[in-house]
Design goal:
The chain is an all-alpha fold. It has helices spanning 2-14, 24-41, 47-54, 67-85, 103-117, 123-132, 140-143. The protein starts with a helix and ends in an 11-residue tail after the last helix.
């Protein structure tokens, strides 16, 4: 219950559940919450613990959800950004200050590239990425351009 008390205090203080990269404290709480989710998924989490966690907010569905649906959604979001940015030849850009709406998409696309490079990207996903986002797997230097300061779209 001490971990529960710590996570409840964290939620009270920050207004949300801990994320893996927020802080050292958040990382530990995030791992603990992940263990609770796995126990819950396996049917090993006691009902009183489930009820206590429910008081924190939406704790069960805050992880990946339906990974297939999320993957398709992210692909479509990247396609839309790419369509707007194609005239300057770039994909979503990881710059939370200048392009906060692109951060999640840039991270997602980077993950796809990493998995492909390591041979862990499913072949069907690799085909879909190539079909929907030509050039997605090219080295970053060939498509990632820092927008010029005078360009109005940025």
């Amino acid at each position: 219950m001490s971990r529960y008390a710590a996570i409840a205090a964290y939620v009270e203080r920050t207004g949300g559940l801990p994320a893996r990269n927020d802080s050292t404290e958040a990382r530990a709480l995030y791992r603990w919450l992940g263990n609770q989710r796995r126990s819950h998924d396996a049917g090993r989490l006691a009902q009183d613990k489930v009820e206590a966690l429910d008081r924190l907010g939406e704790w069960v569905g805050t992880r990946n959800g339906n990974s297939e649906e999320l993957w398709v959604l992210r692909l479509e979001q990247v396609r839309q950004v790419r369509q707007v940015r194609v005239e300057v030849g770039r994909f979503p850009f990881y710059d939370p200050q200048r392009y906060p709406d692109e951060k999640v998409l840039a991270v997602w696309l980077h993950r796809q590239r990493t998995w492909q490079r390591k041979g862990r990207l499913r072949p069907d996903r690799q085909e879909t990425l190539t079909e929907v986002l030509p050039g997605w797997d090219a080295p970053a230097t060939t498509w990632q351009r820092s927008p010029s300061p005078g360009h109005a779209d940025f």
